[in-house]
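Hi R.,

Here's the input for the pyridoxal-5'-phosphate complex you asked about:
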Amino acid sequence: MTEHHWETRAVHPPVIGPDASRPLGVPIYQGHLFAFDDAAAMAEAFEGPDGAFIYGRMGNPTVRSLERAVADLEGGAGALAAASGMGAITTVLTALLRSGDHVIAQSSLYGGTHGLLHDLADRWGVAVTHVPGDDPDAVRAALRPETRVLYLETIANPSTHVADVSALAGAVRGTGVLTVVDNTFTPVLCRPLLQGADVSVHSVTKYLGGHADVVGGAAAFADPDVHRRVWRHGLDVGATAAPHSAWLVLRGMATLAMRIERQSRTTLDLARRLEAHPAVASVAYPGLPGHPQHVLATRALDGGYGAVLSFEPAGGRDAGRAFIESVRLASLATSLGDVSTLVMHPASTSHRRLDAAGLAAAGIGEATVRIAPGLEHPDDLWNDIEQALAKAAP
Ligand SMILES: *Cc1c(COP(=O)(O)O)cnc(C)c1O
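And here is the predicted structure with pyridoxal-5'-phosphate in place:
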């Protein structure tokens, strides 16, 4: 381009890519426009999620690296990355549903998802029936000709109720109903697509990212046609993942398997110590033999029982509040899946809009504390928990 003026050359800098070598780390492709030499190739690129890159909302090399990594993690045919977990869930559900359709959903759901389903019912005419997460007969009984989606979460928050994905997905097999599973709490440990689900969604803000520095979402698909359908609708929704966010999630995913294994082990250790503590009324963690779905969790999860527990300090709501204000090493913060330990009090924060009956139905007590252990040494965490329990004791 030396024949052009420098102003023109400033707009058309040479794009330098590696030639004889290749980058081992995934590069961040911040550029969002891709030019073609061939008009037919450009037209073809508009056809699906795996085509040549055109425009950032339709695909980006860094984002596609993340999509391939998530598809691989979940054993899916493909995946879609999104700007947030709710972006992924909204894109999937609004792609698969139209007014007049019916959804069967697990009764205890992430607050944002609960709100979305409520909104779809209230303003878009999508009927929703709630069922327990472990009863395939309840799913069969709820089926209607217009049912399109069965929606589950592998482990409910903060009750730690475990869904029987294979039995529930099995209950709708052959009916045309698609099973969508929120696998945010159990990446690596559970592969819903291999248990008969059609879509596995994630808030990658949690374990996949893992370092409290990125918000993102993803959905993996068993069937390429469902992937294409959701991708096409996603172009209109526009909850697109940004390249830098995708890069951060990819960096987190490199250590995901080690982190989730270690965090699950620490959580089991803390759950056992809490259970034996006199100032603790009850502990909910699927790894404890007394948990109502312990046997199911052992069958459905591979390599650990997840890294979230909840417990009830003796002494009611005041004890719960006093505990979360007394921890020193753990942080009082929402979210989970971070390298550092997070505690929260659902009744006064994430679930504050529920009345006593609603709290009970969600398996939450007035005193319930949720702990999402990080990568600190378990003994340091236990010392922190013990001193906070002493301060919270009635
Ligand atoms: C956090 C979370 C979401 C929402 O994800 P965002 O990235 O915050 O939008 C959805 N489902 C579950 C289970 C979550 O924990």
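One thing worth noting: The CA atoms of residues 91 and 330 lie 34 Å apart.

Cheers,
M.
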